[in-house]
Design brief:
three-stranded antiparallel sheet
Length: 286
Amino acid sequence: MQIQPIQGLAAIKGINEREARPTVKLEQGQLEGVKRVEIDLRSHTTGRELPADAIQHNSARMFFSPDINHTLDTLLSGPSEQVQDAVYGLFEKNFFSGDSSLTDEDRAGLLEMGLSQAKLLADKFMNASDAAVFTDTVKLLGALAKTRGVDSGTGAITYAELPQKPIGAPDDYVNAGEMMKQFDPEGYRKMQAAILSGDNAGGMLIAFAKKLRQNPEWSKEYLQDRQAFMEGLHNTKLPNRFEEASTDSLADFVSDMNRLLDEAYESGSSLLKENLRSFAALIEGI
């Protein structure tokens, strides 16, 4: 299955709760001072409407960062392809949906449902050690999803950009390209233009590397910013109205989720119930 970088995915442009339950809203732009990346989501805009019993397989393999994707590849090397599709499906449909018609309340509900779906997958198809790593990874990506912002002029969606550190690189690894974007933005724009035109972009990066040696404080600032950013993601609160749903079996999970949905939404939520139905149908029988 083709892996699509999250940086390359396409630009897109009230909950009435029973018994006065507090409304959970998706907070945007929580992490101050972080770099953002435009997400291209046109390839994920809503297509033709499918029959109610149709199941979409082969979810897009989003690219987040070398270490995150390596972790996911390792964790998902054992489970069936259906489980892999369910995992990447919740990232695509619940965390980073490209549906421009969704409200903030819709996105909050989908994120919460995705967290509960991930818990079922971890409990049902992974050992305790793998489940713990998977849960931490899902929570990190859930926090990343909450950094979503929309450009008021272009409608382009942006998310905070995860550090791009090679697998196995030390904690003090410095990415020259990221640093060039931060400390020499004009030079970085010229380098990107050179890459597109086929000119000598490598020479520009080498020239910047020489500047780095002359400005050691840049590396220190870069590493401090990166550490603060990752700590901010790990500390992001992810409320979930559906966290008490049983994961003893798929049937119990679906029953509890439907009950919790009916409690949270006076008239139910067709969006979330359809999302739940598609998820359950994908992994049913395995």
